[in-house]
Design a protein that fits this description.
heterodimer; A: MetI-like fold; 75% helix; B: 75% helix
């Protein structure tokens, strides 16, 4: 073999090596889905899929009749997520708008790393603060015996979703062409009117995508909700009741369940439901962001 | 002042309040942990194992456990992340496959951490038979960190101007030679910075390690990769909710929270400082 073709061979081998690493992300994603699916399937030898999804009662260790309904958990998950978005979306957009449109650039340079610090706090620490800090406050305000309920979970999830919402909303506000604002100002609108009626509507798709991403985070978050929502496995009665989300249920029961039982497989089935929901939410946010970027270019 | 001005003033004020609320929450968090955790920090707390059913003593095994598991995480996620980023930024063309890869990476970073935990239980603990161990937990965290290290490394590669690559190619270098000599040396510090941020987040994760290797209590340090381990985040969870006398061990929980937050934010800070210095250097 002459030197030239050896060099070429080496180059393509190197390229193939990097390609293998590049394709790994796809394989991991598919691998997660497939392994969850295969481990969930045995559960449905004994459980009816329809009942699994629409039955409210989850009681896999009952000596009388084992029940595997996850509706209460799905509703609980969406309840804390909704609560989190109600708090985090206006607050997040407010901060993003302030940083992009009002703040001096020096304030922005300081504020952005500070918001990043918030994103860096581990979820278990935030859950701990929910117990020691927000729990007593919530109990006092609403006059309930303890503050471990859906409200507490919503507040903490909102705090965790904020950095995502702020940074992506701010990016999309900054990406709005300057001409939009200039035209609006030239017509005599104030900066506030320009922000509310021109710039925010123009950045709406990015803001929407940031909300979806925040929502995905909130749905999948485990430690905070596990620590502060009380974990009662009943159908939630309201925001002040103790609830158990899908993530918390997996975390509570996976440590105790005997391997390779229907209960064990059912926990992986919950994981599969969780994976599918977050996948769809993330995909939706991705499509929104992508369309928006293509339109910009 | 006319009405338009008043509305604008009030509106901007409201937006500023939003920012202050976020600052206040963060300050409250840091102040609460700092003020109540500082009392528990002592040389003994940092260097001794828990005693008397974890009501006394320190958190040394948890610190070591987190340190060791983060090393395993780094060994998996850092090289794989860098290689994948090199492929995406240097080799990949705008094809459908490349779009699918990028989509997968973004989606992987949105997969719930407990789902990574479940995946780790099936793949590493059961199928690959690693048991509940540092290895299983570290590999699980490694996969979780992978999308972050890929993204961060690619960001670093993007900052290298094309003229660097073209200069090498024009002198007759092959593609790999140009990457090795003219791209990687300049991108490496940036890549490392980004990966440190990813590792800091991994070190604070709890859900993925709960069922793949973290132990409630171990009186000794792990001796090999196939041992279970104590970890700071899981230890905090235990002390905050699972201990038989939660109110008695609250100061210890605060101390653990402070050490964990100091570790994670410290790693963040190091990364930010390196990045800042690099940027300044490049400007000069």
């Amino acid at each position: 073999m002459n030197r030239m073709s050896f060099a070429r061979l080496k180059e393509s081998a190197i390229k193939a090596f990097f390609f293998t690493n590049g394709i790994l992300a796809v394989l991991v994603l598919i691998g997660i889905f497939c392994l969850l699916l295969f481990t969930s399937v045995p559960a449905f030898r004994e459980i009816n899929i329809k009942e699994f999804l629409i039955d409210k009662n989850w009681n896999p260790t009952s000596p009388v009749k084992e029940e595997y309904g996850i509706l209460s958990m799905i509703v609980s998950t969406f309840m804390v997520t909704l609560g989190a978005l109600i708090i985090a979306v206006p607050l997040g957009i407010g901060v993003a708008a302030y940083l992009s449109d009002v703040a001096h650039w020096k304030v922005r340079e300081i504020a952005k790393p500070i918001v990043e610090v918030l994103a860096g706090i581990p979820s278990v620490v935030i859950g701990f603060l929910g117990i020691v800090l927000f729990g007593p406050i919530i109990a006092g305000i609403f006059g309930v015996s303890h503050g471990l309920n859906a409200v507490n979970g919503s507040i903490l999830l909102a705090i965790m979703a904020l950095p995502t919402i702020i940074s992506i909303s701010e990016d999309s506000l900054n990406a709005v062409p300057r001409a939009y604002a200039e035209a609006s100002l030239a017509l005599g609108a104030s900066r506030w009117q320009t922000l509310i009626r021109v710039r925010i509507p123009a950045a709406l798709s990015g803001i929407l995508a940031s909300m979806m991403l925040g929502m995905g985070r909130a749905i999948g978050e485990t430690m905070t909700v596990l620590m502060v929502t009380g974990n009662a496995p009943a159908f939630p009665k309201g925001f002040l009741s103790s609830i158990r989300t899908m993530t918390a249920n997996i975390a509570i029961e996976l440590g105790e369940v005997p391997y390779y039982t229907t209960h064990y497989y059912a926990l992986f089935a919950i994981g599969l439901v969780l994976f599918i929901i977050t996948f769809l939410v993330n995909l939706a946010s991705d499509i929104i962001l992508h369309k928006y970027q293509e339109r910009e270019q | 002042m006319n009405r338009k001005k008043i509305v604008e003033f009030a509106g901007f004020f409201l937006l500023r309040v939003c920012l202050y609320i976020v600052f206040a929450v963060l300050l409250l968090f840091l102040y609460d942990i700092g003020s109540k955790g500082a009392g528990s920090i002592s040389w003994e707390f940092l260097t001794k194992a828990p005693r008397r059913g974890m009501t006394e003593g320190g958190i040394f095994p948890a610190i070591m456990g987190t340190f060791l598991v983060t090393i395993v995480t780094a060994l998996l996620a850092v090289p794989l992340g860098m290689f994948a980023a090199i492929y995406l930024n240097e080799y990949a063309k705008q094809t459908r496959l490349t779009r699918v890869i990028r989509l997968s990476i973004r989606n992987l970073s949105g997969v719930p951490s407990i789902v990574y935990g479940l995946f780790g239980v099936i793949l590493f603990v059961n199928i690959l038979n690693c048991g509940t161990s540092i290895l299983s937990a570290g590999l699980t965290l490694g996969l979780l960190t992978l999308p972050w290290t890929i993204t961060a490394s690619e960001e670093a590669l993007k900052t290298i101007p094309n003229s660097y690559r073209e200069g090498a190619l024009a002198l007759g270098a092959t593609k790999w030679q140009s990457i090795r000599t003219n791209v990687l040396p300049y991108a490496l510090p940036g890549m490392l910075t980004g990966t440190v941020l990813g590792l800091a987040r991994a070190a604070g994760e709890t859900a993925p390690i709960m069922f793949t290797g973290a132990a409630f209590y171990l009186p000794f340090l792990p001796k090999s990769l196939s041992d279970q381990f104590m970890a700071l985040p899981y230890h905090l969870y235990v002390m905050a909710t699972q201990h038989h006398n939660i109110s008695l061990v609250r100061p210890l929980a605060y101390g653990t929270a402070l050490v964990l937050i100091a570790l994670v934010l410290g790693m963040n800070m190091v990364a930010v400082i390196i990045r800042y210095r690099l940027r300044r250097k490049r400007r000069e």
